[in-house]
């Protein structure tokens, strides 16, 4: 039977709801018994059949109002109970199920991770535990009793507060939990295991004490401190900036090694991929530290935007995810560097979200049609969703935005809301008309803004002509005009002086409201021809087309006040350089490096000390996958060759300057502080170039040997691998010997191996599937070896003999059985076939067809393959 799609337009309020649920778990990895007592309430008079979701367990018994009951129908995904004879509006159900967590490789529902047992219920995992109205608009109070072996599982955790516990005579013990807050089933969590526990506390602004607990595998306590500090910073920030306070007396985080994504915001009991908890200087890079802090923050912020106010249906996912990403971005920006955070986010958006918009999976941030919900936890829903919130913030300003937030919370606390509820609150609290803006929620695709300008020297008038156009996407052919906030600045062409924006003598706001297909904006008293800085801070998720000359870009790079604009000018220069050389390469001409880019880079290096962090970012060459997004049809070989040419040329021309900076920016003992992180970033980007010079081998070798932290260790290892230095094999072997017992650290090593520039990289990857640290059932390992090869090594993955595609398809055939959710992530590079030449398309299509022919194709893969082959 073909999986069926669900449509947003078909939403109906449920006929029944569940007000209370009491769960009893008799836990054992091989045989767990769950008894669920549901208090059901009929909401629609006359509703006669209650359909509960559930699959992948043994259904053992059903009782209705205390008596055994058999008037039901059961299929592969549900149980439909005939309640036509019940005249009261309230009744009780008791359901017994049996499951096998140890065999559950899908890592959804109840499963074993290492020696522990845990749950993952979002989006629809609860129904793998027991029958339930498993939809986010059914909010119930939960009581959970867990019984298990005390020796194997000394900690038994669930949501809310611990209300009772006891020991049994047979060596088992039990704990009972009660969550006072109404919640949807996707926020339910249970964890059992033996852990080391880090404890702390937080006093909320109203003076309540909250116990903070972080559970990690035994032996990892020395890696939990950063996560705890991050949690406390998050709690404080949410009080300060959003006036939101934590509501329970306890907040727990458990780190597990087997996890399909980053983390999960279950009420009061977050479950985390250990990658986003564990850090110490020897094992985690600066980037890891920042990532951990932002994921901890993200999950914490969900307590309000997600848990207290949840989603009415899964089409509204961006209501909680877009908003919570926006909040975590703001948190990181407030604590660290706003421009650096913005640059990181924009890079992701351009490289991955823009690519999704031109893929078969294109969808609006509020999708219209879904087969498998897990396929919609996308960069579009998350990151573009956050951009949409950010645009609202730009249009309203901080003060009105916060008023809007307060109204949204006041109106929707304790309920399941929609994106419309949010926008409407923002609109009413601020008085800003968001009628046209709402289209961002329903229109997919990346808008293109074409800008041209004219300068009237005589009257000192400057005009910007702005046109918008959104190309058709796979899911939606017709497009409408959006409300696009376009933030601009003007600079003197010669002096680089900022020019005030005026119209008829009055100052103009620098955020232009682009509403129509064609619009002209006029500025007066512009005494010299200006250079426009367009889309400052990336004020909207659009592609901007303005015909910048390299001179104009260099002016912006040198003088713009907005750091994002300076960085973006450097990016555009790199992009222009790559484009020019790619067409040289494709027509068989010699490659050449432009004087202008050389001049710009010299300027950047000579001014490095003014802003070390921005310098590091400006010097960073876009990745192959970032360059690829400049083209409709991607030439993976050409891009790899030209990019390496650029790397080597920059290294040669600027060798002296790079080396001087490298030597001068050495840090003392490792510390996670902004100043040192910037220095390390700059020094390591210098090293990534210098590796390609005559200094490369000794510099890289010593860098590795002298490193007292993972940031520098990995920078050396990466430089050695990318530049294929003589010291490479020795360093890789040394690292492996030291860390082979530690999967998280080995992920870095697997990723380096998977992205080697060597011609035989696929062979290496294949043999590493048997490496002692590799584990096919661990999503982190799979992502760092298979995911990195397919997604980050385009030249080898798209090898013209089809070997990369065959490799991925073979892996996916296995994963289709064991973990379809991870399979559906890994297939992404294969479904983007329309971006490649005919020969590659044919090969990619063949791979997809092979998968389509599988007997038991999971709906996760089915949905993507169907779209790709369409
Ligand atoms: N809400 C979870 C993601 C769940 C993904 C389910 N496939 C983590 C987060 O966004 O915070
Ligand atoms: Zn989230």
Q: What CATH architecture of the largest domain do you see?
A: Sandwich
> How many separate structural domains?
5
Query: Which percent bin holds the helix content?
Result: 40-55%
Total helices: the number is 27
Note down, in words, how this protein is organized.
It holds the Pfam family DUF3458. It is an enzyme of class 3 (hydrolase). One of its GO terms (molecular function) is metallopeptidase activity. By secondary structure, this protein is α+β, with helices and mostly antiparallel strands. It folds into 5 domains: 193 residues, tricorn interacting facor f3 domain (Immunoglobulin-like); 133 residues, Orthogonal Bundle (Neutral Protease, domain 2), CATH 1.10.390.10; 88 residues, Immunoglobulin-like (Sandwich); 164 residues, Peptidase M1, alanyl aminopeptidase, C-terminal domain (Zincin-like fold); 129 residues, Peptidase M1, alanyl aminopeptidase, C-terminal domain (Zincin-like fold, Alpha Horseshoe), CATH 1.25.50.10. The protein contains 27 helices and 34 strands. The strands form 9 sheets. The chain has an 8-stranded mixed sheet, with no helix packed on it. A 5-stranded mixed sheet has the order 17-18-19-21-20, covered by helices on one side. β29 and β30 form a beta hairpin. The relative contact order is 0.06. It binds (3S)-3,7-diaminoheptanoic acid and zinc ion. The site of (3S)-3,7-diaminoheptanoic acid has 12 residues, from β20 and α2.
């Amino acid at each position: 039977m073909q999986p069926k799609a669900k449509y947003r337009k078909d939403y109906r309020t449920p006929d029944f709801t569940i007000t209370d649920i009491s769960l009893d778990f008799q836990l054992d990895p091989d045989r767990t018994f769950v008894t669920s007592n549901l208090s059901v309430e009929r909401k629609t008079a006359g509703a006669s059949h209650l359909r509960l979701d559930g699959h992948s367990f043994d259904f053992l018994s059903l009782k209705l109002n205390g008596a055994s009951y058999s008037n039901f129908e059961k299929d592969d995904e549900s149980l439909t109970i005939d309640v036509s004879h019940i005249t009261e509006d309230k009744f009780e159900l008791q359901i017994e199920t049996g499951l096998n967590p140890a065999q559950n490789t899908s890592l959804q529902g109840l499963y074993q991770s290492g020696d522990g047992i845990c749950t993952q219920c979002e989006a629809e995992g609860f129904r793998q535990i027991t029958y339930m109205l498993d939809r986010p608009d059914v909010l119930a109070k939960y009581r959970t009793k867990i019984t298990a072996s005390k020796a194997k599982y000394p900690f038994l955790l669930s949501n809310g507060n611990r209300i009772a516990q006891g020991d049994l005579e047979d060596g088992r013990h039990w704990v009972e939990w009660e969550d006072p807050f109404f919640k949807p089933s996707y926020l339910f969590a249970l964890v059992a295991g033996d852990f080391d526990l880090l404890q702390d506390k937080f006093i909320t602004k109203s003076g309540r004490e909250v116990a903070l607990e972080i559970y990690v595998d035994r032996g990892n306590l020395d890696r939990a401190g950063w996560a705890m500090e991050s949690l406390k910073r998050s709690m404080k920030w949410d009080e300060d900036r959003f006036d939101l306070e934590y509501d329970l007396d306890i907040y727990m985080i458990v780190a597990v090694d087997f996890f399909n994504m980053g983390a999960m915001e279950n009420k009061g009991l977050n479950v985390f991929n250990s990658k986003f908890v564990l850090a110490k200087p020897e094992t985690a890079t600066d980037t890891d530290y920042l990532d951990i802090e932002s994921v901890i923050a993200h999950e914490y912020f969900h307590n309000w935007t997600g848990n207290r106010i949840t989603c009415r249906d899964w089409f509204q996912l961006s209501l909680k995810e877009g908003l919570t990403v926006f909040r975590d971005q703001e948190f990181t920006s407030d604590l660290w560097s706003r421009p650096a955070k913005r640059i990181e986010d924009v890079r992701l958006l351009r490289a991955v979200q823009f690519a999704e918009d031109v893929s078969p999976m294109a969808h609006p941030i509020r999708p219209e049609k879904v087969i498998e919900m897990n396929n919609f936890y996308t960069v579009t829903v998350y990151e573009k969703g956050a951009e949409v919130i950010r645009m609202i913030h730009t249009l309203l300003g901080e003060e009105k935005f916060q008023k809007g937030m307060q109204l949204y919370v006041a109106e929707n606390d304790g309920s399941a809301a929609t994106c419309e509820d949010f926008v409407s609150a923002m609109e009413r609290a601020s008085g800003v008309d968001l009628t046209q803006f709402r289209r961002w929620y329903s229109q997919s695709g990346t808008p293109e803004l074409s800008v041209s300008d004219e300068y009237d020297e005589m009257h000192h008038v400057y005009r910007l002509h702005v046109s918008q156009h959104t190309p058709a996407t796979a899911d939606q052919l017709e497009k409408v005009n959006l409300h696009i906030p376009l933030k601009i600045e003007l600079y003197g062409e010669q002096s680089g002086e900022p020019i005030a924006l005026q119209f008829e003598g009055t100052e103009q706001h620098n955020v232009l409201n682009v509403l129509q297909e064609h619009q002209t904006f006029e500025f007066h008293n512009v005494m010299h021809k200006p250079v426009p800085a367009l889309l400052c801070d990336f004020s909207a998720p659009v592609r901007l087309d303005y015909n910048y000359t390299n001179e104009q870009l260099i002016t912006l790079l040198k003088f713009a006040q907005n750091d994002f604009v300076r960085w973006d000018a450097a990016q555009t220069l790199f992009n222009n350089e790559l484009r020019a050389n790619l067409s040289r390469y494709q027509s068989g001409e010699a490659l050449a490096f432009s004087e202008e880019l050389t001049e710009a880079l010299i300027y950047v290096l000579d001014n490095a000390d003014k802003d070390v962090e921005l310098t590091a970012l400006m010097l960073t060459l876009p990745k192959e996958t970032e360059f690829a997004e400049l083209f409709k049809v991607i030439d993976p070989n050409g891009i790899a060759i030209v990019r390496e040419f650029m790397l080597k040329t920059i290294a040669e021309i600027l060798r002296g300057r790079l080396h001087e900076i490298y030597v001068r920016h050495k840090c003392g003992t490792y510390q996670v502080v902004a100043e040192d992180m910037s220095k390390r970033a700059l020094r390591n980007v210098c090293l990534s170039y210098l590796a390609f010079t005559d200094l490369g081998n000794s510099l890289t070798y010593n860098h590795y040997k002298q490193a007292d932290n993972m940031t520098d260790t990995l920078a050396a290892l990466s430089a050695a691998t990318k530049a294929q230095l003589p010291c490479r094999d020795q360093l890789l072997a040394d690292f492996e010997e030291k860390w082979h017992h530690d999967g998280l650290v080995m992920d870095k090593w697997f990723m380096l191996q998977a992205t080697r520039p060597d011609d035989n990289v696929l062979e290496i990857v294949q043999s590493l599937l048997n490496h002692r640290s590799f584990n096919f059932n661990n999503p982190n390992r799979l992502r760092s070896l298979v995911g990195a090869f397919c997604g980050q090594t385009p030249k080898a993955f798209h090898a013209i003999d089809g070997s990369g595609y065959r490799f991925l398809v073979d892996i996916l055939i296995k994963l289709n059985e064991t973990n379809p959710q991870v399979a559906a992530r890994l297939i992404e590079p294969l479904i983007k076939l329309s971006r490649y030449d005919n020969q590659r398309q044919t090969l990619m299509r063949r791979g997809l067809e092979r998968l389509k022919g599988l007997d038991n194709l999971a709906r996760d893969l089915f949905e993507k393959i169907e779209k790709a082959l369409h």
